[in-house]
Amino acid sequence: MARRLLLVHAHPDDESISTGATMAHYAALGDQVTLVTCTLGEEGEIYVPELAKLAAADADQLGGYRIAELRAACAALGVGDVRFLGGAGRYRDSGMMGLATNDNPRSFWSADVDEAAAYLVEVMRETRPQVMITYDENGFYGHPDHIQAHRVAMRAAELARAEGVGPEKIYWMALPCSVLEAGLHAFADTVGNPFEGVESADDFPFGTPDDEIAARIDATDLHDAKVAALKAHATQIPDSSWLYALAGDFGSEFMGVEYYTLAAGERGPGDGPNGWETDLFAGIAVAEPAPAEAGSR
């Protein structure tokens, strides 16, 4: 396929929460979308009572179960190229920052960055992505696996570009401060308000000034696909989650629009009052695949 997008995420469900609309958007356009997930999410909480014993402290089988959840979520988004960094189970979920699970020798947080990056370079050699999406230096909100995914993805891009197979543009997931401020007001009276007690967008560990945002992807027509992907991650996102409550109150705008900063590459032409890109491939000269010769298979 002429346009090829690579996403690097830490755990199953991160892709749907943070970039599900973007993935569905480009998959619907017929572009190649490749997802690389760095761990199986073994340390996640479980919100399905009958599956509680899959937890790390019991049978320690949650990671295997979440493989199926991830594939179902990506199917809802129209994405079929789903991979795990170094193969499923190579790296283990590190848990939240400061926990003893960070020190597990198999934890992703403990991984050698160059070694992990080499596995991602293998994917880049095969897929030749023009665009890559991952987290910022803080992993968006400070989770160790998100931070490590950032480090690994950026190192892999550096190595791959030296070979001529790296992405031309790299985006980091972001949330504009204006959107956070609007959310504080819009969600103030909702049941299960996730911002309860927060007075200002400055109180969040994330939030990007609007003038640092480079792209806004509008996939409001595909918000149902993102909701379906979230529901596929049932062990992690209960039916009572504030995500669904807010989706019901604010619909496609909440689920279908995602934002990015540009970490590497040239910014393409934009649109709207902020001049934000509406296409992550903006400014990239994409060569169409050569037509197959007659009689070729």
CATH architecture: 3-Layer(aba) Sandwich
Sequence of secondary-structure elements: EHEHEHEHEHEHHE
Distance between the termini: 17 Å
Strand order across the biggest sheet?
3-2-1-4-5-7-6
Provide the residue-averaged pLDDT: 91
Cα radius of gyration in angstroms:
19 Å
- Number of distinct helices: 7
Instruction: Point out poorly predicted stretches.
Output: none
What is the number of strand segments? 7
Q: What class, by secondary structure content?
A: alpha/beta
Annotated CATH topology: Rossmann fold
Topology:
Blueprint: E1 4-9, H1 14-28, E2 32-37, H2 62-77, E3 81-84, H3 113-127, E4 131-134, H4 144-163, E5 169-174, H5 177-186, E6 215-218, H6 223-232, H7 242-256, E7 257-264
Parallel strand pairs: 1-2, 1-4, 2-3, 4-5
Antiparallel strand pairs: 5-7, 6-7
EC number: 3.5.1.103
InterPro entries: GlcNAc_PI_deacetylase-related (IPR003737), LmbE-like_dom_sf (IPR024078), Mycothiol_biosynthesis_MshB (IPR017810)
Catalytic activity: 1D-myo-inositol 2-acetamido-2-deoxy-alpha-D-glucopyranoside + H2O = 1D-myo-inositol 2-amino-2-deoxy-alpha-D-glucopyranoside + acetate
What does this structure look like?
The mean pLDDT is 91. The protein has one domain (4-175, 209-264): Rossmann fold (3-Layer(aba) Sandwich). A seven-stranded mixed β-sheet has the order 3-2-1-4-5-7-6, with helices on both faces. The radius of gyration is 19 Å and the shape is globular. It is 34% helix and 13% strand. The chain starts with a strand and ends in a 33-residue tail after the last strand. It has helices spanning 14-28, 62-77, 113-127, 144-163, 177-186, 223-232, 242-256, and strands spanning 4-9, 32-37, 81-84, 131-134, 169-174, 215-218, 257-264. The relative contact order is 0.16. With 297 residues, the protein is α/β, with parallel strands linked by helices. Helix 2 (62-77) runs antiparallel to helix 6 (223-232) and helix 3 (113-127) packs across helix 4. The chain is built from seven helices and seven strands. Its cofactor is Zn(2+). InterPro entries: GlcNAc_PI_deacetylase-related, LmbE-like_dom_sf, Mycothiol_biosynthesis_MshB. Catalyzes the deacetylation of 1D-myo-inositol 2-acetamido-2-deoxy-alpha-D-glucopyranoside (GlcNAc-Ins) in the mycothiol biosynthesis pathway. Belongs to the MshB deacetylase family. GO terms for molecular function: N-acetylglucosaminylinositol deacetylase activity; zinc ion binding.
